[in-house]
Design a protein that fits this description.
Helix content is about 50%, strand content about 15%. It is of the alpha+beta class. β2 and β3 form a beta hairpin. α1 packs parallel to α3, α6 runs antiparallel to α7 and α7 packs antiparallel against α8. It binds flavin-adenine dinucleotide.
């Protein structure tokens, strides 16, 4: 693909840069989750008000009808100024695209704009205690009762559930059907007594994710996304978007972290150690490879309309590279970085989950082997 900017793309970048010069969000608060969330919500609102919240979304839902290349420029520019993730990242990258692909006109009308404006935050209720990698093993069940579905079961590791109004919920609607076929996909209102959210504290000390208990929660039938029994295919749309969309954003963030480490290694003289210099050079090559892979993923979306299984490769390589970078940073910075509450200590601890969230590395390797390389299933 051609990575040189066209005059329109250059104009788009310049307009965004100009806007960011005036509207950059400033330093994100650290150590206070509520304050950080409020900051990210305010940032998303600022983006939305100026039409920058999801540039490739249709204008009628608050986007800019941008091309995927312009979208890539958008993420690169956000990375350049070190902008935080917007509060509704799962809504923007997962729920929105899934609703656009599967939703009725009424559903698109109802849900898309509040996702962009961050008025309604979304979470992803897929994983359960006995169904993570094996999503088809979902046990949460939904039983039809008049115009509603009544949902009982448990989800786990639900990121951002504490802030969410809506949940992308996969539940079993047909216990008789074979595993994948018995699932349906719902848009569940979190704002009801029958839905309980309990925080889970991570190794970083944050409670980013939660357990979710549903005890006869009610979901109107009109909130089913796709048809009854389509849950598996709708969920795959969400997962493909998760791996490719986040992949693009995360490779930009990886570059930001690497640039910072190179700067710090220059300041404390560690870059003069050939072993450190070589490790930094290796990280540079990996980061650049990921950037090109992420662009290739975009051109695949342009061709086929939806992200394909190649996004799994980007997510797999990103997660391993991010862990290597955090480990390298801590060894370059020395023990202080672990004892002083340095932000690298946070990166080191948070990165442990990278090879699990959004699909474990083993599962992604299986997808790449079978669906990208076409190797036989064992
Ligand atoms: C930070 C973080 C945030 C998350 N946020 C969310 C969220 O918002 N919503 C949500 O629904 N989930 C979320 N998750 C859950 C995540 O999707 C699951 O943890 C993940 O899918 C793995 O499932 P599991 O934990 O049940 O592990 P398991 O599936 O039990 O896997 C255990 C081990 O077995 C390996 N394994 C399993 N099956 C195979 C196989 N077929 N071949 C080879 N190896 C295999 C796995 O790779 C892993 O190493 C989050 C997880 C993390 C860490």
């Amino acid at each position: 693909m051609d990575l040189t900017f066209s005059p329109e793309e250059t104009e788009f970048r310049d307009e965004l840069r100009g806007w960011l010069t005036v509207n950059a969000p400033g330093e994100e608060p650290r150590g206070d989750e509520e304050a950080q969330y409020a900051f990210r919500k305010a940032w998303q609102r600022t983006l939305y008000d100026a039409g920058w919240a999801a540039v490739h979304w249709p204008r009628e839902y608050g986007g800019r009808d941008a091309t995927l290349m312009q979208s890539a420029i958008f993420f690169e520019e956000m990375g350049r100024i070190g902008a935080p993730l917007p509060a509704n990242v799962l809504g923007l990258l997962l729920a929105g695209p899934t609703i656009m692909a599967w939703g009725t006109e009424e559903q698109k009308e109802r849900y898309l704009t509040p996702i962009l404006s961050a008025d309604e935050i979304w979470c992803q209720g897929f994983s359960e205690p006995e169904a993570g990698s094996d999503l088809a093993a979902v046990k949460t069940r939904a039983v039809r009762d008049g115009d509603d579905w009544v949902v009982t079961g448990q989800k786990v590791w639900t990121s951002g559930a504490q802030y969410s109004k809506w949940c992308m919920l996969v539940a079993r609607t047909d216990p008789e059907a074979s595993r994948h076929k018995g699932l349906s996909y719902f848009l569940m209102d979190m704002d009801q007594e029958a839905v309980q959210v309990r925080p889970l504290v991570q190794i970083t000390g944050e409670a980013e994710f939660n357990e979710l208990f549903m005890e006869e929660a009610r979901i109107p039938h009109e909130n089913m996304l796709g048809g009854q029994g389509d849950g598996w295919n709708v969920a795959l749309t969400t997962l493909m978007n998760e791996r490719s969309g986040l992949g693009f954003f995360l490779q930009v963030r990886l570059r930001q972290l690497l640039d910072r480490l190179v700067r710090e290694a220059g300041e404390n003289g560690r870059i003069d150690d050939p072993v450190v210099a070589e490790a930094l050079g290796d990280m540079h090559v990996r980061t650049e490879t990921l950037r090109l892979l992420a662009y290739r993923g975009l051109s695949a979306i342009e061709q086929y309309g939806q992200p394909g299984p190649e996004g799994s490769l980007t997510k797999w390589l990103w997660s391993e590279t991010n862990q290597m970078l955090a480990q390298l940073a801590v060894s370059v910075r020395g023990a202080d970085s672990l004892t002083t509450g340095d932000s690298w200590a946070y990166e080191l601890l948070r990165s442990r989950g990278n090879t699990i969230e959004g699909g474990t590395t083993e599962i992604l390797k299986n997808i790449v082997a079978e669906r990208v390389l076409g190797l036989p299933r064992k």
